[in-house]
Amino acid sequence: MIRLEDLQPNAAVRGLLPDCLVTVVSVQWFGSEALELTYKTPSGKVANELLYRHDEPRLDLAEQGRPWSFDGDGTMFRLVSEAHRIRLAHLFDPVLAVHTSLVEPLPHQITGVYGGTSKSFSWGRARTSSASGYPKNGS
Fold first, then answer.
1. What is the pLDDT of residues 63-91, one digit of tens each?
2. Which of 52, 115, 129, 131 sits a CA distance of 20 to 30 A from 64?
């Protein structure tokens, strides 16, 4: 919220038009309670509006500057970008867990877990002994 006295030429004001900033061109006072504000829209259209004291709550001054600034915390940015990289890594490397672990599995172990053999082989169909849980040799 600003006061009407804060409206000066070249100030950026939010609240006159929905979803856009306007630039103040000129201000003409009518007593101490009202003013005529001439402003320019982002598209370049010039318009004016009478403003009264009861309009102050809907107005807000905005700082004009670059739409992007690079003054954020670099450490936090690095942490967040690394978290997103890890979150999406499975899309590019399906066996990422194997590549990043200290365990060095043999090729048939990788194929058994990530390959087609685990989908086609069912331990339920194999004959097992009750003691070990491994498939029996022979009959």
1. 766 667 788 899 999 999 999 998 998 88
2. 52
- Is the domain covering 4-62 a CATH 1.20.120 domain? no
Assign residue 47 a region (left: φ > 0; alpha: ψ between -120 and 50; beta: otherwise): beta
pLDDT in tens, 36-47: 999 999 999 999
Q: For residue 45, what pLDDT is reported?
A: 94
Which amino acid does the sequence have at 87? R
